[in-house]
Amino acid sequence: MKLIxxxxxxGQLAKVKEALFRAGVRGITISRVSGHGxxxxxxxxxxxxxxxxxxHEKVQLTIAVSESFVAPTIxxxxxxxxxxxxxxxxxxxxxxxxxxxxxxxxxxxxxxxxVGA
Length: 117
Ligand SMILES: Nc1ncnc2c1ncn2[C@@H]1O[C@H](COP(=O)(O)OP(=O)(O)OP(=O)(O)O)[C@@H](O)[C@H]1O
Ligand SMILES: [Mg+2]
What we know:
alpha+beta; Alpha-Beta Plaits; 4-stranded antiparallel β-sheet; 3 helices; 23% helix; binds magnesium ion
């Protein structure tokens, strides 16, 4: 199992959600975040030193998937989130040790399978 964290442009969210749904991804958490990548944030000078005053608004998707869903999930996000301009975002993939569905007590891949599937 993997935990996929994707940072995307807010304007691409609808397209990405649709692509993920088509790829069979159901469970997803969405948060509004701010950050900066290689280009830095919006930088100002104060008494000779530079500091970041503003970050770029992004959307973070957190998706827990079983192994067979890792590649399709990444492909769906990349395909729908890319504009080709700097700031399109990033995807981080981490090993996921345990998942528990609280209602049933199911564990791991069973807990990731959509109910009724
Ligand atoms: N190394 C990182 N660690 C944590 N978050 C990051 C990292 N790189 C980027 N992010 C997050 O992803 C968002 C988008 O990053 P961005 O697409 O600008 O990455 P980049 O590496 O600068 O690529 P590009 O050159 O295409 O802009 C950032 O605003 C930040 O929230
Ligand atoms: Mg950047």
